[in-house]
Amino acid sequence: MPHSTQLYQHVPETRWPIVYSPRYNITFMGLEKLHPFDAGKWGKVISFLKEAIRRKVELEWGTEDDEYLGKVERNLKKALQEHPPDVVVYNAGTDVLEGDRLGGLSISPQGIVKRDELVFRIVRGLQVPILMVTSGGYQKRTARIIADSILNLCGLGLIGPETPSVLAQNSDSPLLPPEVP
């Protein structure tokens, strides 16, 4: 093993499996004994992350398309200049959609499509691979908006088989080496 861990404990056959034990020794960002149900320690994780975030962008409740898209564009460009990435994992959440009570913003369906296009144009312009994951959004209409966004990205050539970074790898090229170690 490359490093030792105390993540797992041996449970004798005479005992039932343990769901939670304060004796777990899980290290996450320097915090010992972190467990998903330990809200106090997750609060410390959130505090740590707030300090670690270098580009904090705050939005007021009810923020609309123009302000939101402007902040996305400005801050994404600056972040990519400050820290040029090898790959971008883009969390394309839809909880910013107008009417989402948890997200609290007022971004239109067209604004979400435009946001995704903006992110892809900027990242693709730097020749950086991008992985888009969808998340958030608690309305029935979000699936349609996500589909519209993906169709828009495809129609613009920002994703799909005609994308320049994808052209270098044809359909006969394996995504993984023949044997993964």
Strand order of the biggest β-sheet: 1-2
The helix-and-strand class reads mainly alpha
Order of helices and strands: HHEHEHH
Number of strands: 2
Considering DSSP H and I runs of 4 or more, what fraction of the residues is helical?
A: 25-40%
| Average of pLDDT | 76
Number of helices: 5
Separation, N- and C-terminal Cα atoms = 15 Å
User: Uncertain regions: pLDDT < 50 for 5+ in a row?
Assistant: 16-25, 32-37, 165-178
Give the biggest sheet: 2 strands, parallel
Radius of gyration: 21 Å
Strand content: 5-15%
Choose one word for the global shape.
globular
Commentary on this structure:
- The protein has 181 residues and is mainly alpha-helical.
- The protein has helices spanning 39-52, 65-82, 109-125, 142-155, 164-167; strands at 88-93, 130-135.
- It contains 5 helices and 2 strands.
- A two-stranded parallel ribbon has the order 1-2.
- Mean pLDDT is 76; it is low at 16-25, 32-37 and 165-178.
Which descriptors would you attach to this protein?
single chain; 181 residues; mainly alpha; two-stranded parallel sheet; 2 strands; 37% helix; His_deacetylse_dom_sf
Compact overview of the structure:
The chain is mostly helical and 181 residues long.
Task: Please describe the topology of this protein.
Blueprint: H1 39-52, H2 65-82, E1 88-93, H3 109-125, E2 130-135, H4 142-155, H5 164-167
